[in-house]
Amino acid sequence: MAKRKLRKGIALKLALLAALFVVATLGTAFGLNYLFNRPQDEKKNEEPEVVATPTPTPEPVTTSASLFMVGDALLHTTIEADASNGDGTYTFSLLDRIGAIAQNYDLRYYNQETILGGDDLGIHGYPRFNGPQSWGDYMLSLGFNLVSTANNHCLDMNTYGLENSVNY
Question: Does the predicted TM-score (pTM) go above 0.85?
Answer without folding.
Answer: no
